[in-house]
Amino acid sequence: MSESTEPGSYFVANYPPFDRWTAAAVPAVLEAFAESPTAAALGLYLHVPFCRKRCKFCYFRVYTDTSAADVERYSQGLAREAALVAEQPAVAGRTLKYVYFGGGTPSFLSVKQLEKLVAGLHASFGWNDAQEVTFECEPGTLSEPKVKALRSLGMTRISLGVENFDDSILEANGRAHLSGEIGRAWDWIKAADFPNTNVDLIAGMVGETLESWQRTVEKTLALEADSVTIYQMELPFNTTFVHDAKESGAVAPVADWATKRAWVDYAFNRFTEQGYVVSSAYTLVRDPQRVHFRYRDMLWEGSDLLALGVASFGHLSGHHYQNATHWDEYLAAVEAGRLPVVRGLRPTPRELLIRELVLGLKRGSLDVERLRSKFGIDPLKEWAAQWRALEQEGWLSQVHPGPVLSRAGLLRVDALLARFFEEPGTRVDG
Ligand code: SF4
């Protein structure tokens, strides 16, 4: 991998990759909805696609020029979709183990809009028994009444998109919020006493220097969040930074990968000195006995995930799927009483094993016994050459009894995972 940050995606979110999902797989996904459920745990993801402003590094489906009528129509669409999904034989009667409000910016919605949205969802899905209900927030969209409302609406895990504390960096990257809004929002979040609080940071935003990064790390430490998530800045093709570069001929000046890894390494060291524990390539937690991230852990271990909303990704009974990726197409489907699924893929059993293996490695170590008993294949034997090479190159600190990534390996884990991928032509449909 080139060490300079070139346009393109680096982060591995799923396997097989999204470019292998097709419209031809949709009938099989719909059949899976119509059949009996598997024994997998069940989660729910809702995509709220509104933001105050589009960050220059954003590649998600978001809308920034929205009216109250748009929000109302979309919320009704989500409630309609929830009702459609909840009555499917593969879903009916099952208990949600976790819920995730992501985006976009879920906290873009007003208190009234949120109350209405949650009431609409509750008509189809209860989540009183869920172990975790995460809600993503952008600091500048919060108010004290809104934070209190989130608590009383049942959110258990608040994730605040801080990204950086330096106003000039926030502005250069097109963030809607400034640093003054972070402290204000955090005071309200602390006062509301959520069971779990998370802060998101990005290492290597345009304009970042070692000194500014160190200040961001210290200010984040002072928040005493239950967990901190740190991503390394990348430049996916569908971002303002990359579009601008096409016109100007100059790629956005993002630090190279070695620098970003060094900055995350610095943060990991500072946080662990203060009692945090590294719980994945991107996450530190303050008290691993108490603080969990069910969405990540259950999803990465093969749970079903119901996807609600435009462009959402789901997983059901061994099928990957994605909803319609455009506003009109999504709403037309749900308003007509149709599930808005537009593409999917049924991974083979071997691909499901690879998926759990690569996602598991992002945690920093592999539970070999779990994979062996679930898939009937020993990953140590099956990929012996890969483990050997990774160890020789210094990315693993041990192979037996289960692979453990070294810090250097963990910091570049997404660049290592392709070694386990298979060529599309070699797959045998399961
Ligand atoms: S807040 Fe998040 S979803 Fe919204 S534009 Fe920025 S990166 Fe994208």
Termini separation comes to 32 Å
What's the β-strand tally? 14
Morphology: globular
Q: Which CATH class of the largest domain applies here?
A: Alpha Beta
**Corresponding CATH architecture of the largest domain:** Alpha-Beta Horseshoe
Query: What fraction, in percent, of the residue positions are helical?
Result: 25-40%
In short:
This protein is α/β, with parallel strands linked by helices and 430 residues long. It has helices at 26-34, 68-86, 111-122, 144-152, 167-172, 179-192, 210-223, 240-248, 257-273, 294-300, 327-335, 349-361, 368-375, 379-382, 384-392, 407-411, 413-416; strands at 42-48, 98-103, 132-137, 157-163, 196-203, 227-232, 277-278, 283-285, 304-308, 313-316, 319-323, 341-345, 396-398, 404-405. It folds into two domains: 18-300, tm_1862 like domain (pyruvate-formate lyase- activating enzyme, Alpha-Beta Horseshoe); 349-424, Arc Repressor Mutant, subunit A, CATH 1.10.10.920.
